[in-house]
From TrEMBL:
Entries under Gene3D superfamilies matching the protein: 1.10.287.130
Keywords: Coiled coil, Kinase, Transferase
Top EC class of this enzyme: transferase
Name of the protein in question: histidine kinase
Coiled coil ranges: 14-41
Lineage: Bacteria, Pseudomonadati, Bdellovibrionota, Bacteriovoracia, Bacteriovoracales
Lineage: superkingdom: Bacteria
């Protein structure tokens, strides 16, 4: 009889451990999926920011070339275009820094399986 009880107890414990392992596996799959989504989002954001940075840089570069080739009598409009371009780049750089700090804080978190 003791042998039967210990066998049943072992079976119960085995089933309980299997359920816990299945749950842990499901959590790991969910975390892997979340990490993949975050990486894809991060990649997409970086591509967008890189693209967005190239436009104001191009405007700034063209304005500088224009000023070098033939300085206008009224330089205010050229300087205003340059200022807007640098403001846009500054905002985009701030976005990149925020994205980097968010990514860094996510990567520092640990996963606990309960």
């Amino acid at each position: 009889m003791d042998n039967l009880l210990s066998t049943n107890g072992l079976r119960e414990k085995n089933l309980q451990l299997k359920k816990e392992l299945d749950h842990a596996y499901e959590l790991i799959q969910n975390y892997e999926s979340l990490i993949a989504e975050l990486r894809e989002s991060n990649d997409s954001n970086l591509k967008r920011i890189t693209h967005d940075l190239s436009n104001p840089l191009q405007i700034l570069s063209m304005t500088i070339e224009s000023l070098q080739d033939s300085p206008p009598k009224d330089i205010a409009s050229a300087l205003e275009r340059m200022r807007r371009s640098t403001d846009t780049m500054t905002e985009l750089i701030a976005s990149i820094r925020k994205l980097r700090s968010t990514a860094a804080s996510i990567s520092k978190k640990t996963v606990q399986v309960i």
